[in-house]
Structure formats: structure tokens, C-alpha cells
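Homework help board

Subject: predicted structure for assignment chain

Our instructor gave us this sequence and asked us to write out the predicted structure in C-alpha cell form, then describe one feature. I got the C-alpha cells but I'm not sure how to describe them. Can anyone check?
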Amino acid sequence: MAARRFLYVIAAIIFLLFAAGVMWTLFPQAIMRLTFVPSIAFAPPPQAGAPDYNEPEAWLSRPGTPDDPARWLPPGVPGTARTDAVVFFVPPTTYLDKLHWNAPYDDKAADARAHLLVSSQASAFSGIARVWAPRYRQATVGAFLSAKPDAAHALDLAYSDVSRAFDAFVAQVPPDAPIILAGHSQGSFHLLRLLRARVAGHAIARRIVAAYVVGWPISTTADLPALGMPACSRADQARCLLSWESFGEPADPAQLRVIYDASRGFAGYPRRGTPALCVNPLTGTRDGVAPASANLGALLPDARYSSATLVPHLVPARCDSQGLLLIGEPPAGFGVAVLPGNDFHVFDYALFWANIRADAARRLAAFGKHRR
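My C-alpha cell output:
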């Protein structure tokens, strides 16, 4: 009798898992919205809670920051001498709660996740430049799953912090320092707006070495012409823009393309049906193709995502006709952070960490020659 009850329990669990799988397959967007989109109305947070970017506490990374996550290096990788260059790095979404449309400035969980991601992303630049990465009241992840005006208000608030951080960054770094712009995911979303509104056509554009706008799709026809910077077509090119979105194969970008297909680009044209920009981080060229042997080192995380080791030749990379960066059969070891559809979004920097480091150094050297 007990054995029969046990079998009933197992059968019930299997049925529930099967039902959950069917529900996810049929209604992934609905489930995501239910899980992550706030049900409350957007309300501007008190101005007194806004970050003051003249204060060190408003930065995850900047020169002199104790326990700076951008200064982390994988075991066996020596530090290199920094130049006079600086990096403005906008971190990705790390606030996953639906209690607020924007992360409270002092949210500990979001801050801990930001430290972890900055250490695996912005650290690629730390050997050649001084990294500045602001804390900001980022929009919750649910803001990217909703067409409500509340979501747009949340993104506007987050951008206002990023814009103020950029002003403070420019005011505090040497006035002739070369600048690398970089971001990931929501950070790249805001970085694109910053490029369009604050860099393109302005004097500061002459100081930009390159812009690494990673993990957010950029339409080659509806966005790129309005950004004031061409895509990188050579590995030694300066004053150009890089972007990619990493997928194992078979790739399913359906979740990624929902917002993209429903929106208009910076040039005023619909994004739907247009290819995204893909600059291959292994080649440093637009629409490039490279074997795994060209991969100088990917960061392979430990089981708890608390550290990582640098593994050369882990994955190849090629840009497809949609603008996705395909890495072949999904590599083992990346765990539950790989998103549905073989989406390696979380690892857009980690998969190519050593190549990004070399790429930035090469573009900085090219910028120096061009500047003289």
C-alpha cells in the first residue's frame, strides 16, 4: 500500500513537471510577465534617494574603490600596466524583484549580483584602462516584459541616473583621457541612448576609443545610422562600435526579439525584420567567423558562480544572417544561468574574455596613432 502511494506521488510529480513544461512552451511570455512584472503603478522614488556620483559610494568601480570587482582577474592571469585611458561601464540588470519598478539604491541582493557580473565583464578592460561603473536605480527585469507606460517610466528613471553618472565621470577623469564605453544588457540599452543623445555630434566623440554595446540588439538599418559611430570592420579600427548576442545551437532568439520587433529604431524606422549588428569578438570584425582555436580564453564559472578559470579554445563564434553570434553546441559547465533557447546572454563577455581584453588594447593603440 505504501509502495502504491509512493508511485502515485512520483506519477503526480512527473505530471506536474510535464504540465509546467507544456505551459512554458505554450505561454512563456505570460509566465515571465506574471513572475517578474510589477503589479503596482510606477511612482518616482524620492529625489533624496538618488545616487550622488560625486561620492565614491555611488560607484561599483572607480579608482580607489575598495574591493573593486572590475579589478578581479582569473587565476594565473597577470595584471598589466594601465594606460591613461578610462572606461565608462554600465552594468546589466541585476534587480529581479517585482516589488518596485526600479531597484532601490541600497538593494543588497541586486548589488551583490552586480559585483559578480562586473567582475566577469568589466574586468576584461581593467588591465588597460581605469574602470568606472556606476550604481544606478536600474529598471527591474519585468520592465523589459511589459508595454505599460510604467515600464517606460522605469527605464527613463534608470537612464537619468546613467546620464548623470556619465557627466560626473567626464568631470572627474583627466580632460584628455581616451574613453572606452561599454555595457551589457540593460546597461547597453542605456548606453545606446547615451551614444545617441550625449556623444554623437558632440565634442566628446573625438575621445571615444570604441563602444562595446553587448547583449542588446542594434538594428543595422534602424539604429546604426543614427549612433554617430560605424560598426567595427577591422580588428585594429578605433572610433567604432561592437555588439553581439551569444547563442548555442540550435538557437531560439524568440524571447530576445519580442521588444526588438515591436519597437522603432533611433533612425525612426521599425526594427522588425531587420538584422542585428554582429561584430565577432574573436575576430574583431563585423559578421566574422572564427574557430575555437582563435578563442584566447573563456571564463568558465565554478558551481556557485563565485569564481572562474580561464579556458582557451572553449568555443568558436560566427555571426549568422539574423545577427546572432553562434557558438556551436552549447558547452558544458555554465549551469542554470543559460537562458531558454540556448541563450548565453549572461556569458556574452565571459565566453570571449581574453579576446575582448586583447581587442580593447589593440583599439586603444590604434586610437593613439590616429590621435597623434
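Reply (TA_rk): Your C-alpha cells look well-formed. For the description, you could write something like this. The chain has a mean pLDDT of 89. That's the kind of observation they're looking for.
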